[in-house]
Write a structure and sequence with these properties.
single chain; 127 residues; alpha+beta; Alpha-Beta Plaits; 2 helices; globular
């Protein structure tokens, strides 16, 4: 897969089907309305496999809601399960690398409850 296509392809796989599905942001943003899935690159971004093939690590940040008392962890668990099911149902190359535990993420000075889902993506071509 070409490096420039990855985020848009994963965004299409995760795109909302039902009104209750989370919105998908294929770019990093400084403000959002949860629930949302935000796509970005992980560390390390690219790891060489062969001369023409690399493995990229795409991070899907599942943002359940603002950090406040209530059912936030359950909502986050549902979002992670939703994301894994949608990725698993797609024939694309989206093997799971890891899922980070629930954490506080600050976006635009607002604290959110979120988790990072990292998938490995084969990247062809490039320098």
């Amino acid at each position: 897969m070409n490096l420039l296509e990855v985020r848009s392809k994963v965004g299409a796989v995760l795109a909302p089907v039902l009104d209750s599905d989370p919105m998908v942001l294929v770019d990093l943003v400084d403000a959002l309305e949860p629930p949302a899935l935000m796509l970005g690159w992980g560390e390390p971004w690219l790891v060489p496999d062969t001369h023409c093939l690399r493995t990229g690590r795409l991070v899907i940040t599942a943002i359940a809601g603002r950090l406040m008392p209530g059912p936030g962890i359950a909502a986050l668990e549902e979002m992670v399960a939703y994301t894994l099911v949608r990725l698993g149902a797609d024939p694309g190359p989206w093997p799971l690398d890891s899922v980070g535990g629930p954490r506080v993420f600050v976006i635009g000075k607002v604290s959110y409850l979120a988790a990072r889902i990292t998938v490995r993506v084969p990247i062809q071509g490039g320098p």
